[in-house]
Fold:
Amino acid sequence: MTDLRLSRRDLFRLGLVAGPASLAAACGWDGGKTLAPTLRGASRLNDWVGEKLLLSDGRLSRQYPRSARTPPAAFPAYSISHPLPTLEDPEGWALEVGGLVANPQSLTLEMIQALPRITYTVKHHCVEGWTAIATWTGAPLSAVIALAAPKPEARYIRFETFDSDYSNGWDLKSAMHPQTILAYAWNDRPLEPAHGAPLRVYSPIKLGYKLTKFLTAMTFTAERPGGYWEDQGYPWLGGV
Amino acid sequence: MNDVPTPSPDAPSPAPEPSPGEPPVPAEPIPAVPPPPPAPAPALPIPTPALPVSAPAPAPVIARPAAPAPRPRVKRHHGLVRVTHWANAVLLVGMIGSGLQIYGAFTHFGPRGHRYYPNPLDGKALPLTMRLGGWLAGGLNWHFALAWPFTLAGLAYVLYLAATGEWRALLFRPRDVPRAWQMQLYYLGLRKEHPPQGKHNALQKAAYSFIILLGALSAATGFAIYKPIQLWWLTALFGGYELARYWHFWAVWLFVAFTLVHVALVFLVDPASLRSMITGWYRGRFPSHD
Structure:
Protein backbone atom coordinates (compact mmCIF):
# COMPACT_ATOMS: atom_id res chain seq x y z
CA MET A 1 0.00 0.00 0.00
CA THR A 2 2.82 2.33 0.91
CA ASP A 3 4.34 1.61 -2.45
CA LEU A 4 1.21 2.47 -4.29
CA ARG A 5 0.70 5.67 -2.39
CA LEU A 6 4.19 6.84 -3.16
CA SER A 7 3.82 5.75 -6.73
CA ARG A 8 1.05 8.23 -7.12
CA ARG A 9 3.27 10.97 -5.85
CA ASP A 10 5.98 9.79 -8.19
CA LEU A 11 3.50 9.78 -11.00
CA PHE A 12 2.80 13.40 -10.28
CA ARG A 13 6.49 14.14 -10.51
CA LEU A 14 6.68 12.26 -13.75
CA GLY A 15 3.79 14.36 -15.00
CA LEU A 16 5.76 17.51 -14.19
CA VAL A 17 8.38 16.38 -16.67
CA ALA A 18 6.15 14.77 -19.27
CA GLY A 19 3.66 17.64 -19.32
CA PRO A 20 5.92 20.33 -20.76
CA ALA A 21 7.54 17.78 -23.05
CA SER A 22 4.27 16.74 -24.62
CA LEU A 23 3.13 20.36 -24.73
CA ALA A 24 6.30 21.23 -26.61
CA ALA A 25 5.62 18.44 -29.03
CA ALA A 26 2.00 19.44 -29.44
CA CYS A 27 2.83 22.98 -30.50
CA GLY A 28 5.17 22.15 -33.35
CA TRP A 29 7.63 24.07 -31.25
CA ASP A 30 10.88 25.27 -32.83
CA GLY A 31 12.42 26.05 -29.44
CA GLY A 32 11.06 29.56 -29.06
CA LYS A 33 13.17 32.56 -28.06
CA THR A 34 14.87 30.62 -25.30
CA LEU A 35 15.81 27.35 -26.91
CA ALA A 36 16.02 28.12 -30.62
CA PRO A 37 19.46 29.80 -30.21
CA THR A 38 20.66 26.75 -28.28
CA LEU A 39 19.44 24.50 -31.06
CA ARG A 40 21.30 26.60 -33.60
CA GLY A 41 24.38 26.38 -31.40
CA ALA A 42 24.07 22.61 -31.48
CA SER A 43 23.69 22.84 -35.25
CA ARG A 44 26.99 24.77 -35.43
CA LEU A 45 28.62 22.06 -33.33
CA ASN A 46 27.31 19.50 -35.81
CA ASP A 47 28.72 21.61 -38.67
CA TRP A 48 32.09 21.54 -36.96
CA VAL A 49 31.93 17.76 -36.47
CA GLY A 50 30.81 17.35 -40.07
CA GLU A 51 33.55 19.53 -41.54
CA LYS A 52 36.49 18.83 -39.25
CA LEU A 53 35.94 15.23 -38.18
CA LEU A 54 33.80 13.51 -40.78
CA LEU A 55 34.54 15.23 -44.09
CA SER A 56 37.43 13.52 -45.81
CA ASP A 57 39.19 15.05 -48.86
CA GLY A 58 39.77 11.66 -50.35
CA ARG A 59 36.34 10.12 -49.76
CA LEU A 60 34.63 9.96 -53.11
CA SER A 61 30.98 9.29 -53.68
CA ARG A 62 30.13 6.04 -55.35
CA GLN A 63 29.47 6.34 -59.08
CA TYR A 64 26.57 4.56 -60.75
CA PRO A 65 26.06 3.25 -64.26
CA ARG A 66 23.95 5.47 -66.51
CA SER A 67 21.30 2.74 -66.43
CA ALA A 68 20.76 3.48 -62.73
CA ARG A 69 19.63 7.05 -63.44
CA THR A 70 16.36 8.26 -62.04
CA PRO A 71 13.82 8.80 -64.86
CA PRO A 72 14.39 12.50 -65.69
CA ALA A 73 10.76 13.44 -65.03
CA ALA A 74 11.02 11.96 -61.53
CA PHE A 75 14.04 14.10 -60.62
CA PRO A 76 12.64 17.05 -58.66
CA ALA A 77 13.87 20.57 -59.35
CA TYR A 78 13.33 23.42 -56.93
CA SER A 79 13.75 27.15 -57.31
CA ILE A 80 12.79 30.17 -55.25
CA SER A 81 11.46 32.22 -58.19
CA HIS A 82 8.37 31.13 -60.05
CA PRO A 83 8.25 30.91 -62.97
CA LEU A 84 11.79 29.60 -63.34
CA PRO A 85 14.43 32.32 -63.48
CA THR A 86 15.97 32.70 -66.93
CA LEU A 87 18.59 35.05 -68.32
CA GLU A 88 17.45 37.95 -70.49
CA ASP A 89 20.80 37.97 -72.25
CA PRO A 90 22.45 34.52 -72.08
CA GLU A 91 25.33 35.73 -74.25
CA GLY A 92 26.20 38.43 -71.76
CA TRP A 93 26.34 36.05 -68.80
CA ALA A 94 29.64 35.50 -66.96
CA LEU A 95 30.61 34.10 -63.57
CA GLU A 96 32.26 36.79 -61.49
CA VAL A 97 34.93 35.34 -59.21
CA GLY A 98 36.11 37.82 -56.63
CA GLY A 99 36.51 38.72 -53.01
CA LEU A 100 39.70 37.72 -51.21
CA VAL A 101 41.56 36.57 -54.32
CA ALA A 102 44.75 37.61 -56.09
CA ASN A 103 43.27 37.24 -59.60
CA PRO A 104 39.59 38.15 -59.89
CA GLN A 105 37.97 36.43 -62.87
CA SER A 106 35.05 36.98 -65.16
CA LEU A 107 34.44 33.57 -66.72
CA THR A 108 32.15 33.00 -69.67
CA LEU A 109 30.51 29.63 -70.16
CA GLU A 110 32.95 28.87 -72.97
CA MET A 111 35.89 29.56 -70.67
CA ILE A 112 34.46 27.26 -68.01
CA GLN A 113 33.77 24.54 -70.58
CA ALA A 114 37.40 24.83 -71.72
CA LEU A 115 38.61 23.87 -68.24
CA PRO A 116 39.18 20.19 -67.38
CA ARG A 117 35.91 18.29 -67.62
CA ILE A 118 34.44 15.90 -65.06
CA THR A 119 31.46 13.65 -65.73
CA TYR A 120 29.96 11.38 -63.10
CA THR A 121 26.69 9.61 -62.35
CA VAL A 122 25.99 10.01 -58.66
CA LYS A 123 23.24 9.98 -56.09
CA HIS A 124 21.67 13.28 -55.06
CA HIS A 125 20.62 13.55 -51.39
CA CYS A 126 17.90 16.05 -50.59
CA VAL A 127 17.45 17.39 -47.07
CA GLU A 128 13.82 16.25 -47.35
CA GLY A 129 14.93 12.64 -47.42
CA TRP A 130 14.62 11.65 -51.07
CA THR A 131 17.39 10.58 -53.39
CA ALA A 132 17.75 10.57 -57.17
CA ILE A 133 20.54 9.61 -59.54
CA ALA A 134 21.71 11.65 -62.52
CA THR A 135 24.78 12.30 -64.64
CA TRP A 136 26.47 15.67 -64.18
CA THR A 137 29.21 17.28 -66.24
CA GLY A 138 31.24 20.33 -65.34
CA ALA A 139 34.57 21.88 -64.45
CA PRO A 140 36.18 21.05 -61.12
CA LEU A 141 35.60 23.93 -58.75
CA SER A 142 39.19 23.49 -57.60
CA ALA A 143 40.32 24.55 -61.11
CA VAL A 144 38.38 27.82 -60.87
CA ILE A 145 39.72 28.37 -57.36
CA ALA A 146 43.25 27.86 -58.72
CA LEU A 147 42.63 30.48 -61.42
CA ALA A 148 41.45 33.02 -58.87
CA ALA A 149 44.26 32.24 -56.37
CA PRO A 150 42.50 32.99 -53.07
CA LYS A 151 44.41 34.90 -50.44
CA PRO A 152 45.44 33.05 -47.28
CA GLU A 153 42.71 34.70 -45.23
CA ALA A 154 39.97 33.39 -47.56
CA ARG A 155 38.12 30.59 -45.77
CA TYR A 156 34.70 30.48 -47.38
CA ILE A 157 32.97 30.99 -50.70
CA ARG A 158 29.65 32.74 -51.10
CA PHE A 159 27.71 31.69 -54.20
CA GLU A 160 25.27 34.21 -55.61
CA THR A 161 22.45 33.69 -58.08
CA PHE A 162 19.80 35.36 -60.20
CA ASP A 163 17.14 33.23 -58.47
CA SER A 164 15.52 35.86 -56.26
CA ASP A 165 17.85 36.38 -53.27
CA TYR A 166 19.07 32.80 -53.14
CA SER A 167 22.68 32.42 -52.09
CA ASN A 168 24.71 30.23 -49.82
CA GLY A 169 28.13 29.64 -48.40
CA TRP A 170 30.61 26.84 -48.61
CA ASP A 171 33.66 25.85 -46.62
CA LEU A 172 36.82 25.70 -48.74
CA LYS A 173 37.45 22.06 -47.88
CA SER A 174 34.17 20.97 -49.46
CA ALA A 175 34.75 23.36 -52.38
CA MET A 176 38.14 21.77 -53.07
CA HIS A 177 36.71 18.23 -52.97
CA PRO A 178 37.60 16.43 -56.23
CA GLN A 179 33.91 15.76 -56.98
CA THR A 180 32.77 19.35 -56.48
CA ILE A 181 32.12 20.91 -59.88
CA LEU A 182 30.55 23.86 -61.64
CA ALA A 183 28.06 21.89 -63.70
CA TYR A 184 26.82 22.90 -67.14
CA ALA A 185 25.29 19.59 -68.25
CA TRP A 186 22.72 17.22 -66.78
CA ASN A 187 22.20 13.69 -68.09
CA ASP A 188 24.55 14.43 -71.02
CA ARG A 189 22.57 17.47 -72.18
CA PRO A 190 23.04 21.18 -71.56
CA LEU A 191 21.70 22.17 -68.17
CA GLU A 192 17.99 22.99 -68.27
CA PRO A 193 16.56 26.03 -66.49
CA ALA A 194 14.90 23.68 -63.99
CA HIS A 195 18.32 22.43 -62.91
CA GLY A 196 19.97 25.83 -62.74
CA ALA A 197 21.03 26.87 -66.26
CA PRO A 198 23.45 28.10 -67.29
CA LEU A 199 25.71 27.04 -64.39
CA ARG A 200 25.27 25.55 -60.96
CA VAL A 201 27.39 24.09 -58.20
CA TYR A 202 27.20 20.33 -57.96
CA SER A 203 28.74 17.85 -55.55
CA PRO A 204 27.62 14.48 -54.23
CA ILE A 205 29.03 15.35 -50.79
CA LYS A 206 26.43 18.05 -50.00
CA LEU A 207 22.67 18.17 -49.66
CA GLY A 208 20.77 19.61 -52.60
CA TYR A 209 20.12 23.03 -51.05
CA LYS A 210 23.88 23.68 -50.99
CA LEU A 211 24.18 22.97 -54.73
CA THR A 212 23.45 26.53 -55.78
CA LYS A 213 21.71 26.96 -59.14
CA PHE A 214 21.57 29.93 -61.52
CA LEU A 215 25.06 31.14 -60.54
CA THR A 216 26.18 34.70 -61.08
CA ALA A 217 29.14 35.08 -58.74
CA MET A 218 31.40 33.35 -56.28
CA THR A 219 33.07 35.49 -53.66
CA PHE A 220 35.85 34.41 -51.31
CA THR A 221 35.37 35.61 -47.74
CA ALA A 222 37.01 35.35 -44.35
CA GLU A 223 33.65 35.37 -42.54
CA ARG A 224 31.19 32.52 -42.83
CA PRO A 225 28.53 33.59 -45.33
CA GLY A 226 24.87 33.07 -44.56
CA GLY A 227 22.42 31.69 -47.05
CA TYR A 228 18.80 31.63 -48.09
CA TRP A 229 17.84 28.49 -46.19
CA GLU A 230 20.67 28.56 -43.68
CA ASP A 231 19.56 31.96 -42.37
CA GLN A 232 16.12 30.46 -41.73
CA GLY A 233 17.55 27.65 -39.64
CA TYR A 234 18.75 24.91 -41.96
CA PRO A 235 22.12 23.36 -41.09
CA TRP A 236 24.91 25.45 -42.58
CA LEU A 237 27.29 22.70 -43.67
CA GLY A 238 24.71 20.44 -45.30
CA GLY A 239 27.34 17.78 -45.84
CA VAL A 240 26.54 14.17 -46.41
CA MET B 1 -4.68 12.61 1.99
CA ASN B 2 -1.53 10.78 1.31
CA ASP B 3 0.66 12.45 3.86
CA VAL B 4 1.33 10.77 7.15
CA PRO B 5 2.20 13.22 9.88
CA THR B 6 5.06 11.12 11.21
CA PRO B 7 8.28 11.27 9.23
CA SER B 8 8.10 8.36 6.88
CA PRO B 9 11.08 6.12 6.38
CA ASP B 10 9.86 5.77 2.85
CA ALA B 11 10.57 9.39 2.11
CA PRO B 12 12.53 9.20 -1.09
CA SER B 13 15.26 11.50 0.07
CA PRO B 14 17.54 11.40 1.84
CA ALA B 15 17.78 7.64 1.60
CA PRO B 16 20.85 6.39 3.38
CA GLU B 17 22.27 3.03 2.47
CA PRO B 18 21.43 0.58 5.24
CA SER B 19 24.61 -0.47 6.92
CA PRO B 20 25.26 -4.21 6.73
CA GLY B 21 24.75 -4.90 10.44
CA GLU B 22 21.59 -2.92 10.69
CA PRO B 23 18.28 -4.70 10.34
CA PRO B 24 17.28 -3.78 6.84
CA VAL B 25 13.61 -3.41 7.61
CA PRO B 26 12.63 -0.02 8.87
CA ALA B 27 9.58 0.16 11.04
CA GLU B 28 6.39 0.77 9.14
CA PRO B 29 5.00 4.21 9.76
CA ILE B 30 2.20 4.28 12.23
CA PRO B 31 -0.76 5.30 10.19
CA ALA B 32 -2.78 8.16 11.52
CA VAL B 33 -5.87 6.71 9.93
CA PRO B 34 -7.13 3.15 10.15
CA PRO B 35 -4.88 0.99 8.01
CA PRO B 36 -6.19 0.37 4.55
CA PRO B 37 -7.54 -3.09 3.81
CA PRO B 38 -4.88 -5.64 3.02
CA ALA B 39 -3.81 -6.04 -0.56
CA PRO B 40 -6.50 -7.95 -2.47
CA ALA B 41 -4.14 -10.64 -3.67
CA PRO B 42 -1.35 -11.87 -1.44
CA ALA B 43 2.04 -11.68 -2.97
CA LEU B 44 2.94 -14.66 -5.05
CA PRO B 45 5.54 -16.87 -3.51
CA ILE B 46 8.65 -16.39 -5.54
CA PRO B 47 10.98 -19.37 -5.23
CA THR B 48 14.56 -18.51 -4.56
CA PRO B 49 16.47 -17.72 -7.68
CA ALA B 50 18.93 -20.48 -6.91
CA LEU B 51 16.29 -23.00 -7.89
CA PRO B 52 17.07 -24.05 -11.45
CA VAL B 53 14.17 -23.47 -13.71
CA SER B 54 14.63 -26.67 -15.61
CA ALA B 55 14.46 -28.82 -12.47
CA PRO B 56 11.41 -31.06 -12.23
CA ALA B 57 8.62 -29.00 -10.89
CA PRO B 58 8.74 -29.31 -7.13
CA ALA B 59 5.63 -30.28 -5.29
CA PRO B 60 3.86 -27.00 -4.76
CA VAL B 61 4.86 -26.21 -1.24
CA ILE B 62 2.46 -23.47 -0.45
CA ALA B 63 4.20 -22.02 2.55
CA ARG B 64 2.27 -18.86 2.45
CA PRO B 65 2.77 -16.70 5.53
CA ALA B 66 -0.39 -15.90 7.39
CA ALA B 67 0.23 -12.21 6.97
CA PRO B 68 2.64 -10.82 4.43
CA ALA B 69 5.79 -9.91 6.29
CA PRO B 70 7.01 -6.39 5.65
CA ARG B 71 9.40 -6.65 2.80
CA PRO B 72 12.86 -5.23 3.14
CA ARG B 73 13.56 -2.07 1.29
CA VAL B 74 16.42 -2.63 -1.10
CA LYS B 75 18.45 -0.49 -3.42
CA ARG B 76 17.43 -1.62 -6.89
CA HIS B 77 18.74 0.91 -9.40
CA HIS B 78 21.99 2.84 -9.37
CA GLY B 79 21.74 6.60 -9.88
CA LEU B 80 23.32 6.40 -13.31
CA VAL B 81 20.71 3.91 -14.43
CA ARG B 82 17.90 6.14 -13.19
CA VAL B 83 19.30 9.31 -14.71
CA THR B 84 19.95 7.72 -18.11
CA HIS B 85 16.57 5.98 -18.03
CA TRP B 86 14.59 9.17 -17.52
CA ALA B 87 16.86 11.24 -19.71
CA ASN B 88 16.32 8.89 -22.59
CA ALA B 89 12.61 8.61 -21.88
CA VAL B 90 12.27 12.37 -22.37
CA LEU B 91 14.83 12.51 -25.18
CA LEU B 92 13.07 9.68 -26.99
CA VAL B 93 9.86 11.71 -27.04
CA GLY B 94 11.82 14.58 -28.59
CA MET B 95 13.65 12.34 -31.05
CA ILE B 96 10.42 10.72 -32.22
CA GLY B 97 8.53 14.02 -32.45
CA SER B 98 11.27 15.72 -34.44
CA GLY B 99 11.81 12.59 -36.52
CA LEU B 100 8.15 12.51 -37.50
CA GLN B 101 8.44 16.19 -38.40
CA ILE B 102 11.34 15.34 -40.72
CA TYR B 103 9.42 12.41 -42.17
CA GLY B 104 6.70 14.84 -43.25
CA ALA B 105 9.06 16.40 -45.80
CA PHE B 106 9.13 13.19 -47.87
CA THR B 107 6.55 10.64 -46.82
CA HIS B 108 7.85 7.73 -48.90
CA PHE B 109 10.70 5.26 -48.75
CA GLY B 110 12.86 4.16 -51.62
CA PRO B 111 14.51 5.96 -54.53
CA ARG B 112 12.49 8.31 -56.69
CA GLY B 113 11.13 6.97 -59.94
CA HIS B 114 10.67 3.48 -58.51
CA ARG B 115 7.97 1.70 -56.58
CA TYR B 116 8.17 2.89 -52.99
CA TYR B 117 8.70 0.45 -50.13
CA PRO B 118 5.66 -0.83 -48.23
CA ASN B 119 4.65 1.75 -45.64
CA PRO B 120 1.24 2.06 -43.97
CA LEU B 121 1.91 5.80 -43.64
CA ASP B 122 2.98 6.28 -47.27
CA GLY B 123 2.00 9.75 -48.40
CA LYS B 124 0.69 10.74 -44.98
CA ALA B 125 2.17 13.36 -42.70
CA LEU B 126 1.75 12.80 -38.98
CA PRO B 127 -0.62 15.10 -37.06
CA LEU B 128 0.84 18.25 -35.54
CA THR B 129 0.46 16.86 -32.03
CA MET B 130 2.96 14.12 -32.83
CA ARG B 131 5.56 16.45 -34.32
CA LEU B 132 8.25 18.66 -32.87
CA GLY B 133 9.92 21.54 -34.64
CA GLY B 134 7.12 23.15 -36.65
CA TRP B 135 8.82 22.74 -40.02
CA LEU B 136 11.60 20.71 -41.55
CA ALA B 137 14.48 22.90 -40.34
CA GLY B 138 13.00 23.02 -36.82
CA GLY B 139 12.64 19.25 -36.80
CA LEU B 140 16.18 18.76 -38.06
CA ASN B 141 17.64 21.08 -35.43
CA TRP B 142 15.81 19.34 -32.60
CA HIS B 143 16.70 15.92 -33.97
CA PHE B 144 20.41 16.62 -34.45
CA ALA B 145 20.69 18.41 -31.09
CA LEU B 146 18.92 15.71 -29.07
CA ALA B 147 20.71 12.91 -30.90
CA TRP B 148 23.92 13.62 -28.97
CA PRO B 149 22.59 13.35 -25.40
CA PHE B 150 20.38 10.45 -26.48
CA THR B 151 23.34 8.52 -27.86
CA LEU B 152 25.68 9.49 -25.04
CA ALA B 153 23.17 8.52 -22.34
CA GLY B 154 22.68 5.19 -24.07
CA LEU B 155 26.43 4.66 -24.25
CA ALA B 156 26.88 5.61 -20.59
CA TYR B 157 24.19 3.11 -19.61
CA VAL B 158 25.71 0.28 -21.64
CA LEU B 159 29.20 1.05 -20.32
CA TYR B 160 27.81 1.01 -16.80
CA LEU B 161 26.24 -2.41 -17.38
CA ALA B 162 29.50 -3.71 -18.82
CA ALA B 163 31.72 -2.28 -16.09
CA THR B 164 29.65 -3.41 -13.13
CA GLY B 165 28.65 -6.82 -14.43
CA GLU B 166 25.00 -5.85 -14.15
CA TRP B 167 24.57 -6.95 -17.74
CA ARG B 168 24.31 -10.48 -16.34
CA ALA B 169 20.95 -9.70 -14.78
CA LEU B 170 19.73 -8.17 -18.02
CA LEU B 171 21.16 -9.87 -21.09
CA PHE B 172 18.83 -12.35 -22.74
CA ARG B 173 20.77 -15.54 -23.44
CA PRO B 174 19.84 -18.85 -25.08
CA ARG B 175 19.08 -20.41 -21.71
CA ASP B 176 16.41 -17.74 -21.21
CA VAL B 177 14.37 -19.02 -24.13
CA PRO B 178 12.53 -21.79 -22.18
CA ARG B 179 12.21 -19.46 -19.20
CA ALA B 180 10.64 -16.80 -21.37
CA TRP B 181 8.19 -19.40 -22.64
CA GLN B 182 7.22 -20.34 -19.09
CA MET B 183 6.83 -16.68 -18.24
CA GLN B 184 4.59 -16.19 -21.25
CA LEU B 185 2.49 -19.17 -20.18
CA TYR B 186 2.16 -17.60 -16.76
CA TYR B 187 1.05 -14.27 -18.19
CA LEU B 188 -1.49 -16.08 -20.35
CA GLY B 189 -2.86 -17.84 -17.28
CA LEU B 190 -1.74 -21.24 -18.54
CA ARG B 191 0.70 -21.70 -15.70
CA LYS B 192 -0.25 -21.17 -12.08
CA GLU B 193 2.98 -20.34 -10.33
CA HIS B 194 5.13 -17.44 -11.20
CA PRO B 195 8.38 -18.86 -12.61
CA PRO B 196 11.43 -18.23 -10.45
CA GLN B 197 13.42 -15.18 -11.39
CA GLY B 198 16.26 -12.94 -10.37
CA LYS B 199 16.18 -9.19 -10.79
CA HIS B 200 14.30 -9.60 -14.07
CA ASN B 201 12.27 -12.42 -15.52
CA ALA B 202 13.23 -13.89 -18.87
CA LEU B 203 10.67 -11.86 -20.80
CA GLN B 204 11.98 -8.69 -19.21
CA LYS B 205 15.50 -9.71 -20.16
CA ALA B 206 14.33 -10.20 -23.72
CA ALA B 207 12.61 -6.81 -23.75
CA TYR B 208 15.48 -4.90 -22.16
CA SER B 209 18.12 -6.57 -24.32
CA PHE B 210 15.99 -5.81 -27.36
CA ILE B 211 15.55 -2.16 -26.48
CA ILE B 212 19.29 -1.65 -26.05
CA LEU B 213 19.82 -3.25 -29.44
CA LEU B 214 17.06 -1.09 -30.91
CA GLY B 215 18.67 2.03 -29.47
CA ALA B 216 21.99 1.05 -31.00
CA LEU B 217 20.34 0.34 -34.35
CA SER B 218 18.49 3.66 -34.26
CA ALA B 219 21.70 5.56 -33.62
CA ALA B 220 23.58 3.59 -36.28
CA THR B 221 20.89 3.95 -38.96
CA GLY B 222 20.61 7.62 -37.99
CA PHE B 223 24.31 8.23 -38.61
CA ALA B 224 24.04 6.16 -41.80
CA ILE B 225 21.47 8.55 -43.28
CA TYR B 226 23.09 11.65 -41.74
CA LYS B 227 26.43 11.11 -43.55
CA PRO B 228 25.85 8.49 -46.25
CA ILE B 229 29.00 9.46 -48.16
CA GLN B 230 31.47 10.00 -45.34
CA LEU B 231 30.13 6.99 -43.39
CA TRP B 232 29.44 4.98 -46.55
CA TRP B 233 30.44 1.69 -44.87
CA LEU B 234 27.78 2.18 -42.21
CA THR B 235 25.19 3.09 -44.84
CA ALA B 236 26.19 0.05 -46.89
CA LEU B 237 25.79 -2.16 -43.80
CA PHE B 238 22.07 -1.32 -43.74
CA GLY B 239 21.62 -1.83 -47.47
CA GLY B 240 22.17 1.74 -48.64
CA TYR B 241 20.67 5.13 -47.84
CA GLU B 242 17.05 4.40 -48.71
CA LEU B 243 16.91 1.19 -46.71
CA ALA B 244 18.77 2.70 -43.76
CA ARG B 245 16.15 5.47 -43.69
CA TYR B 246 13.45 2.81 -43.86
CA TRP B 247 14.88 0.87 -40.86
CA HIS B 248 15.33 4.14 -38.98
CA PHE B 249 11.60 4.80 -39.40
CA TRP B 250 10.53 1.30 -38.35
CA ALA B 251 12.62 1.63 -35.22
CA VAL B 252 10.26 4.44 -34.18
CA TRP B 253 7.26 2.14 -34.06
CA LEU B 254 9.18 -0.56 -32.21
CA PHE B 255 10.16 2.07 -29.64
CA VAL B 256 6.53 3.14 -29.35
CA ALA B 257 5.32 -0.45 -28.99
CA PHE B 258 7.98 -1.21 -26.39
CA THR B 259 7.14 1.89 -24.39
CA LEU B 260 3.41 1.14 -24.34
CA VAL B 261 3.96 -2.45 -23.16
CA HIS B 262 6.69 -1.38 -20.74
CA VAL B 263 4.54 1.26 -19.04
CA ALA B 264 1.47 -1.00 -18.99
CA LEU B 265 3.40 -3.82 -17.33
CA VAL B 266 4.91 -1.50 -14.75
CA PHE B 267 1.43 -0.66 -13.50
CA LEU B 268 -0.12 -4.09 -14.00
CA VAL B 269 2.67 -6.26 -12.64
CA ASP B 270 4.99 -4.27 -10.42
CA PRO B 271 3.96 -0.70 -9.59
CA ALA B 272 6.66 -0.57 -6.91
CA SER B 273 9.23 -0.67 -9.68
CA LEU B 274 8.25 2.82 -10.80
CA ARG B 275 9.34 4.21 -7.48
CA SER B 276 12.57 2.26 -7.62
CA MET B 277 13.37 3.79 -11.01
CA ILE B 278 12.89 7.23 -9.48
CA THR B 279 14.41 6.91 -6.00
CA GLY B 280 16.44 3.76 -6.47
CA TRP B 281 14.67 2.07 -3.55
CA TYR B 282 12.39 -0.88 -4.01
CA ARG B 283 9.98 -2.67 -1.72
CA GLY B 284 8.23 -4.94 -4.15
CA ARG B 285 7.53 -8.57 -4.68
CA PHE B 286 10.52 -9.44 -6.83
CA PRO B 287 14.19 -9.93 -6.01
CA SER B 288 16.39 -6.98 -6.79
CA HIS B 289 19.49 -9.01 -7.47
CA ASP B 290 20.25 -12.22 -9.26
Observations:
- Residues 102 and 137 of chain B are 8 Å apart (CA to CA).
- The beta strands of chain B are 74-75, 281-282.
- The helical segments of chain B are 79-103, 136-164, 176-187, 202-226, 232-237, 241-269, 272-279.
- Chain B is about 45% helix and 0% strand.
